[in-house]
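Methods: example folding runs. The two proteins below were folded one after another, and each record is reproduced exactly as written to the output file, sequence line first and structure-token line second.
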Amino acid sequence: MNKRAKSKNREPLRKSPVKRGDEVVVITGSERGKRGKVLKVLRNTHKVIVEGIKMVKKAVRPSQDNPKGGIVEKEATIAISNVMLASKWEKRQEKKKVAVEKKEQG
């Protein structure tokens, strides 16, 4: 078990609501409304890495892959509770739209 997950008294996820490759929408936070593809699900820490979301800059030492080193932009983790499947999100938005139209009509 991961130390970080252990310190928060969390059990690893048995069944994740999203899987690698799923299209998701961020539902809360500074990246709200943005879409992306799930690259990795971290079950021990209840987090996901989504393509193009929450980009951070990281200093990298020179290596064989990157002989110059420097600063690299990469995706950071997001809490799994802050993302929702895109299909589910669209259904939710459609439902809200219909409710608003009914309210306006009478």
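Second run, written to the same file directly after the first:
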Amino acid sequence: MDLDDCIVQLENEKQETLEQHAKRPCIRGNTSSEEEEEEGKVVEDTAASDEEEEEEETEVDTDSDSDSEYVQFTPRRLMTDEEIREHRRQVAESKGFDVDWFEGILPGSIKPYTLTEANRPPLIEFSKQALKVYNESNNTTFIFEKLIKSNAQCVAGTMFYITFGAQSGNIHGIFRARVWKKIMDEGSQVMSCEKYIEEHV
């Protein structure tokens, strides 16, 4: 058999193979109508479940939005008569520098002022401002050491009742200063500053 005959034979075999594949039934064509219906049902069920999940997510989001709009708030009560009497006693005895925290509220009352990293710097500055006034009035040279505590009262701004420590040579003093931080950022004013305790070391 020469080369031309081999080529012709290979072409014939290739053609026969293609014809045999063409005659084979399609796998999809053998699928029964029941199987097709079942598959269609699965697709429909899947789509329905997806829609239900979307509706549930929408309901959850709606509920969360409604919860965020309405926050339950319990207002604080007013001071009782007994608390008012005790508060006034503490203010009178300590001039407002040693006052406890009361659960009830009383407009214009003096309350402990929580020291935080944010409000410590201005209170330290107020203390130094008051100490400068004290030194000028008493011809002393006390230097600010540390902030001890503070109370506060709302009066067209805030009146701070500051307790701080200062030192001059071998003398350590505990000072009490009232500094008024004016409303509308109009500055501050030292109302009083006195040496409360003095220690020699």
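Comment on the second run: Strands lie at 111-112, 143-154, 157-168, 171-182, 188-200.
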